[in-house]
Amino acid sequence: MVVCVAEKPTVGQYIAKVLGANTRRDGYFEGNGYQVTWAVGHLCGLLDPNDYNEQWKAWNMSSLPMIPDRFGIKVIDDKRKQFDIVKALVQQADEVINCGDAGQEGELIQRWIYQKAGCKCPVKRLWVSSLTEEAISEGFRQLKDQSDYQRLYEAGLMRAIGDWLLGMNATRAYTIRYAQGYGKDRQVLSIGRVQTPTLALVVKRQAEIEHFVPKTYWELKTKYRDTLFSAQLPAEEDEYAITSLEYGQQLVDSIKEQPLTITSVTKKKGTEYAPRLFDLTSLQVECNKKFSFSADQTLKLIQSLYEKRITTYPRVDTTFLSEDIYPKVPATLNGIKDYFPQVAPLIGAKLPKSKKVFDNKKVTDHHAIIPTGQRPDNLTADERKVFDLVALRFIAAFYPDCEVSTTTVLAKAGDIDFKVTGREILKPGWREVFGKQQEDSEETEQKTLPAFTEGESGPHTPELQEKTTQPPKYYTEATLLRAMETAGKTVDNDELRDALKENGIGRPSTRAAIIEKLYQRKYIVLKGKQIHATEIGIDLIHKIISPLLKSAELTGLWEKKLREIERGDYTAQQFLAELKAMTAEVVREVKSNKAGMQCPVCRKGTIIRGNTRYGCSRWREGCTYAEPF
After folding, report:
1. What is residue 440's three-state secondary structure?
2. Of 569, 560, 568, whose CA–CA distance to 500 is shortest?
3. How far apart are CA 400 and CA 271, in angstroms?
4. Is a pLDDT exceeding 60 seen at residue 395?
């Protein structure tokens, strides 16, 4: 008997139907030589500290760091019934087929089940990017040996162990040393490998805003033939060069009697490419901007569309398609033509095969999120919103490029240069797909200029416009997701963002859960669309002394190593050794840092860290406590 193990019951039903396993049993389907069962997310997890050592049950600083010699797993209590069903089937199977989600977490879920169930038979791997009958059937024709995905499993295992080591040890260390209250009333200071640097990003941005001191400056403009030109000040001066009204007025006085002369008129035709297809993060960003959906809400909606077989696998971090998808595009478009009139011009036409869409080098486990071609029936209103975004991006990818013309006019008045730029869409191309929607974040409004002639001259009206420097903006879920993706760097360019993805904190599939966890622990709150750090969250970040725990860049480097494990460029053994060393160092830092503890002399103040020694917060009141580092 061949036993197939899916990750969820709904997926198990689809697989059973394709295989002809039509008899329903308790916890599985059977028929045609197959038994199809499923997990319900994680059935197994890493052992708790007291499972390794009874002394680790109590939260004592003396027991830290907790570093097991060998990590073990156990069945999760409320998943025992389904695990026992899977275990019984696996133990008597001739062959097992791993039908888990085709990703790092899916691989880990399955491997732990087989280990705990004592699986002895050969295991194959089903790897599909959608749940249509065609995709599942093709996947079963191309089953791989499970050993082909060993590095994927090792990366997932190291991620889980890393989260356990740092989370368990850092949370206990900081809670014991700094938390208020005692016993059951003690506030737990929850620290995580990804959640803490994410919180640190929010806290840092909030501090920048709160400590921002606005500055007034002026911009020099002049109006000529109902067109507003901007002064081009010398390159060595910054954009806020006019920092005094007096200086600005001197500039105005120097040119107001001088004519404005057009010195150059240039027109340049250009091309705008269609927006990229969606990966999970860009879809979450777009849904937050357009519909104010949270990252978690978008993930649940696109996961539902995947499980309804309407869209492809969603937990992806690429915006490209593999080249083998190209022959399937006409059928996909044909499947959604009744829902999108924009498809009509593409039916029967030769579709472009651009490297900006199809590039095998940019695709690893999965391609970008696209429609499967199945009819999008019986969708909720929110599911339809998300599906429309995915479908329209896909359709636009096969429309012609948008052709634009940019006009740049240079002028001079006295010794000051001026400039104005206009833009005109010559052929809308892919923009027709979106109608009046603003599809990207760039300014798309046309600004057509009058016909200027080089050498023409005439009177103009200079003016000073008073401006004020603006503070950074609070993070929204959209901008926080981008910051997590790029390890805190602000990046607008798609190519540069791709280069930074490998060093991002968290993975596309986990970032929404991290943000939700920060909400649940009351470290951050949502005010409108703005994310604000709470006093609890700010206090936690201020207490953390280890840069490892709150640096987006350091955590991003860790993520890079996990990806290198997947590729075979780094070993799990090397990574585990680093993990243990990092954990020990984090605990050592907390143990050796006395700041925040009660003063042993006056018993009223707390220990504070000075430049050369520790002292008491009540030193002004006469407390004499002092101790060198």
Report:
1. coil
2. 560
3. 10
4. yes
Cβ proximity of 214 and 467 under 8 Å: no
What gap in Å lies between CA 310 and CA 78, rounded to an integer?
Answer: 31
pLDDT at residue number 195: 94
Q: What is the dihedral of CA 203, 204, 205, 210, to 10 degrees?
A: 80
- pLDDT tens readout for residues 461-493: 999 999 999 999 999 999 999 999 988 877 677
How many CA within 13 A on the CB side of residue 10? 11
Which one of the listed residues 14, 178, 313, 625 is annotated catalytic?
313
**Cα(552)–Cα(560) distance, integer angstroms:** 12
What pLDDT score was predicted for residue 32?
97
Length of the chain (residues): 629
How far apart CA 123 and CA 111 sit, in angstroms, is 10
Q: Confidence band (pLDDT; 50, 70, 90) for 442?
A: very low
Residue 614: in which H helix or E strand, if any?
strand 613-616
DSSP 2: E
Q: Coil, strand or helix: which one is 37? A: strand
Cis-peptide, bond into residue 9, ω within 30° of zero: no
pLDDT > 80? residue 345: yes
Closest CA relative to residue 571, chosen from 169, 150, 185, 254: 150
Average pLDDT across the chain, whole number: 92
Q: Which two tokens stand for residue 553?
A: 């860049």
Q: What single letter denotes the amino acid at residue 102? A: A
Question: pLDDT tens digit string along 90-138?
Answer: 999 999 999 999 888 999 999 999 999 999 999 999 999 999 999 999 9
Pairing of strands 95-99, 2-6: parallel
27: region left, alpha or beta (phi > 0 left; psi from -120 to 50 alpha): left
| Gyration radius of the chain over CA positions | 30
What CA–CA distance (Å, rounded) separates 158 from 579?
9
Q: Are 609 and 545 in contact (CB under 8 A)?
A: no
Beta bridge partners of 327: none
Handedness of CA 98, 104, 106, 110 (dihedral sign): positive
Burial (CB count <10 Å: 0-12, 13-18, 19+), residue 302: buried
Q: How far apart are alpha carbons 178 and 109 in whole angstroms? A: 35
**Tens digit of pLDDT for each residue in 157-196?**
999 999 999 999 999 999 988 876 655 667 899 999 999 9
What's the whole-model pTM score? 0.88
Tokens of 521: 């622990």
Q: 313 catalytic, yes or no?
A: yes
